[in-house]
Input
Amino acid sequence: MSGVLSHFFEGVTTALITPFKNGEIDFNSLKTLLRFQIDNGIEGFVVCGTTGESTTLSLEEKTKLLNFVITEISGQVPVIVGNGTFSTQESIYLASVFEKIKPGGLLTVTPYYNKPPQRGLVKHYAAIAQSTKLPIILYNVPSRTSLKMEPETVLEIAMANENVVGVKEAAGDIEVIKKLKKICPKDFMILSGDDGTFTEAMAYGAQGVISVLSHVVPSWCVKAAEAGRESFKLGKKSEVVDKLTSEIKEVCDLLFCEANPIPVKWAMKEMGIIESGELRLPLVELDKKFHKPMLDVLRKMGSL
Output
């Protein structure tokens, strides 16, 4: 690969929730959320990802969401859209639809449920990459897909497909980040997908994070990312990085106490950023036993 988008997705990118109200997308709340994020320094957005409840959205809703966010952001930061499914052909079709709307790139999760071998992943991503001119970020999240994409597979896909420009690595294993940094080309973007370890990941060379946490503490995330970058420049993980990683542990534990995006939607409603914490079945509202702990930690972090 040749660095089609070298450094384009650096920093803190928020994997956006999709606000709902009475069963429909709440675009007014989404507008408020986008403004809150931009005002606090967020450097990019993912639309129609797992956090956005993509599996419950119709194609019409996905295209409306993408159009809305791109129009609202008006080129201020990159907008990436999720096109990954467990079907190669469906993923290709979504890429072709989204390409017409001109997002900054695609976030393409590994196929879930059908669990292909690594050689199947190589062919899956090659087929998608050959079907589109858009930059592609691979997405490894074994906790949600029951499938681990090996670092060597990431390298093989990247070297064979010029428009595969990076990977969102969400296994939460710093050793994987280290290995990717060691074996991948310098212009290949390594992005953390694990909020609890992203500052440490950046200290070891990840260029950014695609985050859920940044919904509730966006400016904190921007500060933590900068600390990670500075630590990497110094050539060692600093005490500041350890302090920040420890500081955010309680928030991260609560944001993932139930399936994402259940907790973060509840938190955003309590913060007054979105009007309703409504989700689509089979997801349901945050269990009441987590309400007080969540409020306590939001107050502690200055989000309430």
